[in-house]
Amino acid sequence: xxxxxxxxxxxxxxxxxxxxxxxxxxxxxxxxxxxxxxxxxxxxxxxxxxxxxxxxxxxxxxxxxxxxxxxxxxxxxxxxxxxxxxxxxxxxxxxxxxxxxxxxxxxxxxxxxxxxxxxxxxxxxxxxxxxxxxxxxxxxxxxxxxxxxxxxxxxxxxxxxxxxxxxx
Length: 168
Description:
- The radius of gyration is 21 Å and the shape is elongated.
- 13% of the residues are buried.
- The chain is built from seven helices and three strands, in the order H-H-E-H-H-E-E-H-H-H.
- By secondary structure, the chain is mainly alpha-helical.
């Protein structure tokens, strides 16, 4: 397979994976393009490579910057802005975990806490079923939250060492 073909396939696949991970396909494709680029890329180059509009490119680049996955870069003698992506996949994983935790898990835990205490007879089977179910979901969420905190703060060697021990 030639490099250009492999790059196109990677960008397409990363876009599909991204939609499974909760981000839009175009945002994931832009991220993929920037990760595999050896040089910083302008918004125009993103548009040309992915055949997307300026608005779509700018909106998704801005969101990738907000996530901390992409940085703006100024090149000497250029008036345009250029963009680069973090290439260390372990750092990318930690950034995505941090953002997903902040955007999804923390609001869910806050919501579960707000509905976990209901009025009424605690011996009532409907109340007991509801509170037990919410408590179970909340417990899993809190354990996930702690695990993500460890992943976010982890050094790569510690993380892989722990994973190998868990799988052994």
